[in-house]
Amino acid sequence: MKITIIGSGLLGLSTGYHLAQEGHQITIVERRKDSALETSFANGGLLTPSLCEPWNAPGVLFDLLKWIGREDAPLLLRPKALPSLFLWGLSFLRSSTRRRYEENIFRNFRLAKYNLAVLEEMASNIPLSELGGGAGVGTIKLCRQMEELDEVHKMAEFLSPENICFKTLDKNEIFALEPALKPLGDKVAGGSYFPEDRFGDAHQFCAELTKYLINNGVQFLFNTNVINMKKKGDHVCEIDTEQGSLSADTFIIAAGSYSTIIADTVGVKIPVKPCKGYSLTLEPDGWTGAPKIPVIDQSLHAAVTPLGPKIRVAGTAEFTGYDVSLHEDRLQNLYNLLGSIFPESRPYINHETTKKWSGLRPVSASGVPIISQTEIKNLYLNTGHGQIGWTTAAASGKALSDLICQKEAGINISDYSLPK
Ligand SMILES: Cc1cc2nc3c(=O)[nH]c(=O)nc-3n(C[C@H](O)[C@H](O)[C@H](O)COP(=O)(O)OP(=O)(O)OC[C@H]3O[C@@H](n4cnc5c(N)ncnc54)[C@H](O)[C@@H]3O)c2cc1C
């Protein structure tokens, strides 16, 4: 079958890989000059089944109102984005009942756990250094307050029936595991260690996967912006790009936050909105005590991930439409977070050489990725992965490939259907 995939980020590439393995003829259409130059470029680097909760926890409305106008808020709503968020926002809030929230945690967790198995299979087949030698295992969730510690433990216990692996740590055990945290001393209440979590550079993974796919017959059309899709009867017959039209038997939209705009051209509505996040990538030359394990600070809502000689600090979430401009106060916020988690990093932070980045998480209203056929039979979606796109990309690609190829899936695919 001739299959065209729109988008060459984590989701488009992973879907392309699995469908190519099934013998299909794949074309990946990407508006940028290469793969993974948008949201999959400089994310937090975490593949964390342990961190799969959707953002719409019970009480999220109260939190959002409380955080309005606070530049250091973990989830910030900009007033200019409010009109575009109205319908999606209602659905986001509807998913924040205790029952739905808990069901959705399980959906995300199962996908993330399945992801580890799929990645292993991929790594045995193709040379992906970022899944092998270059990447690492384990994450620490660090808690500064006893209430946070209780929450982390409750969540881990809640996921126990799904066999989450975790170890509760007191502060001395944390310092033994990650000595770079020692200077925090009594500020630490405790935490947890998740040995199954992984970390690695998503952009490098995408670069290596692209190379492999090109060498294995997948066609890439870079610098090709998709303008719209065309429907004939009950199927999509072609897509219009700035370079001309393309036909295929099956089309997949994996264009991150822009999936909604493309799908809209054939009347398919996807409940996904962009949520901006920032990252800093530093090379702290001379800092011999730099961390070796990613640390997620529960109080500060930030993650610090070692990626070889680099340190990635990621965090902040802000609904501000499709704006990816960098704001000094949000960047400063990340520098402050790094200094608060690793006080010894301060002398080694060089603002000039630090790479500053922002990207748009494609956040679905339910907080669960959409891996689905649409009401148009030959049009499929792989989007809405929000803050867990790296954590679930490989499994999402495999799941969509199995759905299209009508093979038995490793997960219950109906859990990820486009809501009617
Ligand atoms: C600050 C931050 C930190 C994060 N940290 C983590 C983390 O630690 N762990 C984790 O699991 N996830 C994390 N994420 C989320 C993760 O990065 C995303 O979920 C994931 O990258 C989404 O991948 P994607 O393929 O859907 O989108 P993208 O990577 O954006 O890919 C979509 C592609 O489609 C292309 N495209 C769009 N429109 C068109 C068009 N009209 N024509 C042609 N091409 C088009 C784009 O150019 C782009 O290349 C983070 C996100 C952010 C912003």
How is this structure best described in words?
- The chain has 420 residues and is an alpha/beta fold.
- It has one domain (2-416): 3-Layer(bba) Sandwich (FAD/NAD(P)-binding domain), CATH 3.50.50.
- Helices cover 31% and strands 26% of the residues.
- Strands 3, 4, 5, 6, 7, 13, 14, 15, 16 and 17 form a 10-stranded mixed sheet that branches.
- The longest helix is centred in the first third of the chain and has 28 residues, at 98-125.
- The two termini are 27 Å apart.
- The relative contact order is 0.21.
- The mean pLDDT is 94.
- Bound molecules: flavin-adenine dinucleotide (FAD).
- Flavin-adenine dinucleotide binds at residues 6-12, 29-32, 36-40, 43-46, 225-226, 254-256, 258, 262, 277-279, 314, 359, 361-362, 383, 385-391.
- Residues 3-403 form the FAD dependent oxidoreductase domain.
- GO terms for molecular function: D-amino-acid dehydrogenase activity.
- InterPro entries: FAD-dep_OxRdtase (IPR006076), FAD/NAD-bd_sf (IPR036188).
- One of its GO terms (biological process) is D-alanine catabolic process.
- Belongs to the DadA oxidoreductase family.
